[in-house]
Amino acid sequence: MVTIGAAGATVTETTRSKATRYTLAALRLSLGWVFLWAFIDKLFGLGFATPEKNAWINGGSPTKGFLGNAVAGPFADFYRSFAGATWADWLFMTGLAAIGTALILGIGVRVAAVAGSVLLVAMWTAVLPPENNPFMDDHLIYAGVLIVLALTTAGNTLGLGRFWARLPLVQRLPWLQ
Do residues 164 and 108 lie in contact, with contact meaning Cβ atoms separated by under 8 Å? Predict the structure, then answer.
């Protein structure tokens, strides 16, 4: 609730709490779309990051281009060693789809945040040092945001988090929230 008095407008804790919940929900949905879009573009080759000829459904490899050509730094040989491997393609694409879907739906946000953070930190280590900064880049920022989402009930606002948390399996295994 916002009240206007002699000193001007004041924001109550209720309003601040609601704004925080909706901001976290917007961040969750945004990051979910980042992951899901990467999956969709790599699957169909929509021409954004992946040309149609390199689409996964056309026989392209979602990991071959980046891991085969774009990696640099101390872990480059490690990442190049499995660039284009079938298991790496499936793991990467399944991860993108599952993380994106979970974040958008607001279910399994903790699991999605951990998996997403691992994937993002791995992608960060693949290009060390980052191009525009000695150590910081968007992968680490996104991972930090995912951790914040995991530590809050970010799936409850504009998501199915409350419903998900009431499922018997999730109540038995709360880390699935």
Answer: yes
CA angle 153, 157, 163 (to 5 degrees): 75
**CA atoms in the 13 A half-sphere facing the CB of 114:** 7
Whether pTM > 0.85 for this model: the answer is yes
Banded pLDDT at 10 (limits 50, 70, 90):
low
Residue 93 DSSP SS3: helix
Reduced to 3 states, what is the DSSP secondary structure of residue 127?
strand
Indicate the pLDDT class of residue 14, thresholds 50, 70 and 90: confident
Quote the DSSP letter at residue 11.
E
Phi, psi for residue 4 in degrees, rounded to 5: -115, 120
Tokens of 104: 């958008």
Instruction: Answer whether 34's CB lies under 8 Å from 28's CB.
Output: no
**Is the pLDDT at 141 greater than 60, yes or no?**
yes
- Residue whose structure tokens are 């080759």: 45
Instruction: List CB contacts of 66: < 8 A, sequence separation 6 or more.
Output: 83, 126
